[in-house]
């Protein structure tokens, strides 16, 4: 199930009091799509996934976090992405290339939206004893995934790739949030800035790899100071 707000469906219209729910599930012979729109207070007719085979039960369980870009919701599959258009009366599958992205463990892969508005895939690996991160963008004009860059974080030593867990991508700042757990000498929560290639440690918790829920939130300096002021009490003069 995925919930999308107006900003991701139509950036020209305000997001207030509007959302759309998308449900992906299996029938006996096909994968079905169903959406609910809050502005009409109604469900769409059931639609079918028309491209590629029916999703397996394993695929459905592993869909994980989805994103919405240009009115289309995306989830990672094994070597591609499931894309479903939401800004239509009924959900409609959008064709994607059948391959083009690696298929490591789920915790080592992540979808995001780059600051320039391109869909992006991240994958992490064990690279020569340290954390390695690569990213690939989807070029809509060519209809294919194109490798952009890779980086080795030599200061973050790991014994195996399972120590890494990619958690969230902050699209405005192009920052990947990830945790390092068992199998690493540097347990904690980190932020990798793709523009500067700089890594900052955000938290020293040794059990961060066991966290089930992790949500990133971007805030500029002015908004941050305002939030502090709203929750602070100052003595009267």
UniProtKB/TrEMBL annotation:
It comes from the Eukaryota. This is F-box associated domain-containing protein. It comes from Oryza meyeriana var. granulata.
